[in-house]
Specification:
Strand order of the largest sheet: 1-5-2-3-4
Largest sheet: 5 strands, mixed
Structural class: alpha/beta
CATH topology of the largest domain: TIM Barrel
Shape: elongated
Distance between the termini: 55 Å
């Protein structure tokens, strides 16, 4: 059975990582089969040339002689026994956490800090990459850990997919994104627009501006209830139009 290899896993080899002094490496992939166009039949024996961290050319058959400038060296990658395809994209992830039972979620909310989820994110990011996803859109995470995770992956410090980060989702008090739902008022922390809770248009604007300031690639609002909420508020609209 053919194993699936990730063509875009080479994305971890950024132009900075590819450079060795003044010399760069051109990767020549020999693929047993190649899926390069969705909906089309896979190509047979193919050659993919990766230059400066991007696909430069795709050719039929196995190219054995590659002409390069003096400042480039060629490295051949033998995937002749494998099926190769572009990396997958997951548009809804939460890399710094995973689904837990309500009891576990509440216990962790009371006993752990965001540093725990930052460490979890390192594990989940690599696991996501090795599952075939080379780009993700992360739509909600506590604290600033997702920004740090994104930076270290981009710098090549740790393995992981490219991340488009929303930072913390924005919710109304008691809404789907209110992480203090189900916690005793004596114990739960105060939630502000700088964290996850915003009520009314002015607090919403402040919350969005705070996330833009932190470097979010997108904004996640929990405009309705959700099935995983720690509250029985239903799934209807929870924000007014303004």
């Amino acid at each position: 059975m053919l194993r699936t290899f990730l063509l875009f896993a080479l994305a971890m080899l950024t132009p900075t990582a590819l450079a060795q002094g003044e010399q760069k490496t051109v990767y020549v992939l020999h693929c047993g089969a190649l899926l390069d166009e969705p909906g089309q039949a896979p190509r047979g024996n193919s050659t993919v040339i990766v230059r400066d961290g991007a696909i430069d050319d795709v050719l039929d058959g196995y190219l054995l002689d590659v002409m390069t400038p003096a400042n480039e060296m060629v490295e051949f990658v033998d995937l002749t026994e494998h099926f190769v395809l572009p990396g997958l994209i997951d548009c809804h992830t939460h890399l710094t956490g995973e689904i837990q039972t309500m009891d576990v979620r509440l216990r962790r909310a009371l006993s752990e800090e965001t540093t725990h989820s930052a460490i979890d994110g390192v594990v989940f990011a690599e696991r996501t990459l090795m599952a075939g996803f080379t780009t993700v859109r992360n739509v909600g995470s506590a604290g600033s850990d997702i920004y740090a995770l994104r930076s270290r992956i981009n710098e090549g410090v740790i393995p992981g997919p490219r991340i488009l980060a929303a930072g913390q989702s924005i919710s109304v008090t008691g809404g789907h994104g209110d992480r203090t739902n189900g916690i005793s008022p004596v114990l739960r922390p105060e939630m502000t627009p700088m964290q996850a809770i915003a009520d009314g248009p002015y607090e919403m604007r402040k919350a969005v501006r705070e996330r833009v300031k932190r470097g979010s690639d997108l904004i996640k609002i929990t405009a309705t209830g959700g099935v995983l909420s720690n509250t029985a508020a239903g799934v209807d609209q929870q924000m007014f139009e303004d």
